[in-house]
Q: What sequence folds into this?
């Protein structure tokens, strides 16, 4: 299982706010920790975000997360979280 690592306190606060409002996100994060590449429709990004991954934590409201995967240390580094327009 991969450990979640949040890049900044601002991102941590945003994620915690979403978790309080939308508790179903917690189960999605747990599934992501088991398989960060295939669970919850995760996909690799291209262009400016080459090497990073993205997934939807919620569709209504639209909540997207951008992250990197560190297989060696079994970590998922959360870089951005918010609506699609906020994240990209």
A:
């Amino acid at each position: 299982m991969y450990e979640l690592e949040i890049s900044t306190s601002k991102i941590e606060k945003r994620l915690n706010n979403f978790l309080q409002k939308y508790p179903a996100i917690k189960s999605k994060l747990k599934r992501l920790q088991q398989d960060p590449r295939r669970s919850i429709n995760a996909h690799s990004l291209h262009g400016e975000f080459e090497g990073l991954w993205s997934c939807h934590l919620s569709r209504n409201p639209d909540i997207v997360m951008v992250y990197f995967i560190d297989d060696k240390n079994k970590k998922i580094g959360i870089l951005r979280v918010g609506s699609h327009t906020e994240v990209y």
